Amino acid sequence: MIVFEMTMLITFAVVTVVTIAAMGRPIAEAYAEKLKARYRALDSDAEVQLTTRIAALEHEVSDLRKQVGQIQDTTDFAVKLLERKDSDVPKIQDKQRQ
Fold it and tell me: Of 1, 31, 58, 60, which one's alpha carbon is 20 to 30 angstroms from that of 52?
């Protein structure tokens, strides 16, 4: 009985996946064509604006990456200082006890 139920479950899963793929592909292709038509309809002015905007965004991302690198360096430096300070604390306390 369990084998029959498992076989039916697997069959149902396969049919579901095939149905979704069969129905989803034409929908995805139609949406892709719609997007292609929208971008083909761009005039040269809109294309220049998009190119300029993309260049500005790339520059901004580059600046942000530099800032993140600087923050990482600063954080690493602070962690090293704290680790060094923590390792020096017992030595100082030991000297004060003596």
Answer: 31
- Taken in order 15, 17, 20, 23, the sign of the CA dihedral is negative
Rounded Cα–Cα distance for residues 79 and 84 (Å): 8
Q: Which residue has the tokens 């292609």?
A: 36
> Which CA distances in Å does 64 have to 13, 45, 57, 59?
46, 29, 10, 9
pTM score of the predicted model: 0.44
- What's the pLDDT at 89? 58
Per-domain boundaries in the chain: 1-41, 43-98
